[in-house]
Amino acid sequence: MDNFYRQQFPFNNNLEHVRNELSREILEANQKKRQKEQEIRELEYLANQIEDSFLFGKIENKLNQLEELKNNIRNQLNQNLHDTLEDILETQKALVKSNFDNSFIQNQLERFKQRLLNSRQINQAELNKICQVQIELGFLELKLEQEENFQAQIEINRNN
């Protein structure tokens, strides 16, 4: 009688077949998932490369704009005030890096600006313009630095 049920209801064979089929499908799904994850990582990498090159271009444009403004202002200034202009730009950059959260740097910047303005060789608008370009450049450089750190972290995670 036991053989009769096995022949009439090959339940165990079907169960084994279903189990094998499910295992195969799970393996295929996991393999496809890994492939898609790899494709996503590669696309993220390419997108970051494109953004980095875009940032490089923007930084280059700002650097050129800053150099042009510096040269124009230097031509108006006495030689002894050239260093003050450089001090303003370096201090402005440091202020951006501090996220505008350093009163000492802010005070230094104001003193340097006032020294130039007191000379009457530059007006407030020109000074504001060059400082604004330096701020924009500082933000772009910070963004690039953050992107590079992010890329490095991705590489570390990819290798682990």
Fill in the keyword field for this structure.
single chain; 160 residues; mainly alpha; 5 helices; 88% helix; rod-shaped; coiled coil
Give the overall shape, derived from the CA principal axes: rod-shaped
Binned strand content: under 5%
The H/E string reads: HHHHH
Structural class: mainly alpha
The helical percent reads over 70%
Number of helices: 5
Please tell me how large the radius of gyration is: 32 Å
Report the average pLDDT across residues. 84
List the domain count as a whole number: 1
Please tally the β strands and state the result. 0
For the termini, the CA-CA separation is 59 Å
The largest sheet is: none
Low-confidence stretches: none
Description:
By secondary structure, this protein is an all-alpha fold. The chain has one domain (2-159). Helix content is 88%, strand content 0%. It has 5 helices and no strands. Helix 3 crosses helix 5 (124-159). The longest helix is centred in the N-terminal third of the chain and has 66 residues, at 11-76. It is rod-shaped and about 95 Å long.
What's the short version?
By secondary structure, the protein is mostly helical.
What topology emerges from the helices and strands here?
Layout: H1 2-8, H2 11-76, H3 82-97, H4 103-118, H5 124-159
Keywords: Coiled coil
Coiled coil: 12-83
